[in-house]
């Protein structure tokens, strides 16, 4: 006889992935609510919800509770099989929609969706038709698939849901293999697809373990451990990989975009501080401003201050600074940024007096406003700025002589 705590220990294979899936759903939920019209986000949310439901309702403790509440022995069986089948259909629909994107072949996409919905809806209906016809008086919390593997009508339902699961995994794996080989894929998307491929490969192993255990019963042998011990553990790992594979591209792209915004915001800090000191004012603090809004406000402030300041830049200094930067070994792009930084510093230091431009090739206002990121990066290297200024000042003296 198994110890009393066995069901709790065994349920770890169900509750651990359920907790991971709930966490993933909680992470995605704000985006799903905010962008509810996005069919991909809705499908991802549905998939995570169904996957969580599969593990919650497949746990032995939940199976016992549902059977007791319904008053029907083993009523959890068709319910769990239906959830698994619905999860397979949702995964296929999500992959088909995701693979085709918002444009493509609408007619082919509609046909594929109709095929998936009709086939897997038919499987679910068949499961509920077959169950009442079967004789299943003994409640089985862990091994119903193998215990009733030879019972009429139950065996057909078991075989039906396992085959539907295996077909979905095979089709999904084929779609993923073809997709991951496409050149030019986003890095986060490729990582997500690889996790999906690993998850569906494990899902195939789950189907193989279950089918082998059921087949052994048909042959008069006992390989129940494949169904009761191995398959749940494999399914738990597979569910985590599949859920992560669907969430990772969205989460990775979101985090990458956020990082780029924060990086751009920080990149503008030297130029912002310089112009704030020149204008005597800065941006007011906003408690709930998003990173994108903070970046936009900083860019706007810099351009608003540079616009009048840029008209007073000594274009002759700009030309000499550019030549000086080239003479110091800087590449042309870096030399232009250093020359612009020198001009901005000179305009700030000399105040608001207007001077006629001299020389050739100074940076015009449009170029300066467009290259504020490069100018701000140049200001991070005061030694380079001072070297260019000193060389440009020497060139001016030589010109006068």
Give the class-level CATH name of the largest domain: Mainly Alpha
Spatial shape: elongated
Distance, first to last CA: 105 Å
Q: Helix/strand-derived class?
A: mainly alpha
- Overall mean pLDDT score? 83
Note the beta-strand portion.
Answer: under 5%
Query: Number of folding domains?
Result: 2
Number of DSSP strand runs = 0
Number of helices: 16
- The CATH topology of the largest domain corresponds to Rhopdopsin 7-helix transmembrane proteins
> Topology as H/E string?
HHHHHHHHHHHHHHHH
Structure description:
It is a single chain. With 401 residues, the chain is mainly α. The chain contains 16 helices and no strands. The chain has helices at 6-34, 39-58, 60-70, 76-100, 106-133, 144-147, 154-180, 187-218, 224-267, 269-279, 291-310, 315-327, 332-350, 365-370, 372-379, 382-400. Helix 7 (154-180) runs antiparallel to helix 8, helix 10 (269-279) crosses helix 11 and helix 12 (315-327) packs across helix 16 (382-400). The chain is elongated. The model is unreliable at 1-10 and 352-363 (pLDDT under 50).
């Amino acid at each position: 006889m198994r110890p009393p705590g066995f069901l709790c220990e065994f349920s770890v294979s169900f509750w651990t992935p359920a907790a991971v899936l709930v966490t993933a759903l909680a992470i995605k939920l704000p985006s799903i609510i905010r962008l509810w019209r996005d069919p991909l986000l809705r499908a991802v949310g549905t998939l995570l919800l169904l996957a969580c439901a599969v593990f919650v309702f497949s746990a032995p403790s939940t199976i016992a509770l549902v059977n007791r509440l319904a008053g029907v022995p083993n009523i959890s069986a068709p319910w769990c099989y239906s959830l698994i089948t619905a999860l397979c259909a949702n995964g296929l629909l999500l992959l088909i929609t995701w693979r085709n994107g918002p444009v493509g072949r609408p007619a082919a996409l509609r046909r594929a969706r109709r095929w998936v919905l009709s086939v897997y809806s038919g499987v679910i209906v068949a499961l509920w038709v077959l169950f009442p016809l079967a004789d299943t008086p003994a409640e089985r919390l862990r091994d119903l698939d193998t215990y009733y593997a030879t019972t009429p009508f139950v065996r057909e339902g078991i075989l039906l849901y396992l085959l539907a699961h295996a077909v979905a995994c095979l089709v999904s794996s084929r779609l993923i293999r073809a997709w991951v080989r496409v050149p030019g894929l986003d890095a986060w998307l490729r990582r997500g697809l690889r996790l999906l491929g690993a998850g569906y490969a494990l899902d195939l192993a789950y189907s193989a373990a279950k089918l082998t255990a059921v087949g052994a019963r048909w042959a008069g042998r006992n390989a129940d451990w494949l169904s009761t011990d191995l398959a749940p553990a494999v399914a738990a790992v597979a569910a985590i990989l599949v859920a992560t594979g669907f969430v990772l591209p969205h989460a990775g792209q979101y985090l990458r975009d956020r990082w780029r915004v924060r990086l751009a915001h920080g990149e503008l800090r030297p130029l912002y501080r310089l112009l704030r000191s020149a204008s005597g004012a800065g941006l007011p603090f906003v408690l709930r401003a998003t990173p994108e809004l903070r970046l936009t406000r900083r860019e706007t402030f810099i351009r608003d201050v540079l616009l009048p300041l840029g008209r007073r830049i000594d274009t002759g200094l700009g030309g000499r600074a550019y030549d000086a930067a080239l003479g110091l070994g800087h590449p042309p792009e870096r030399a232009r940024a250093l020359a612009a930084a020198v001009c901005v510093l000179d305009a700030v230091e000399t105040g608001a007096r207007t001077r006629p431009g001299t020389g050739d090739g100074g940076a015009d206002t449009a170029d300066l406003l467009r290259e504020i990121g490069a100018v701000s990066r140049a200001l991070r290297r005061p030694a380079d700025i001072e070297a260019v200024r000193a060389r440009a000042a020497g060139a001016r003296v030589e010109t006068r002589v």
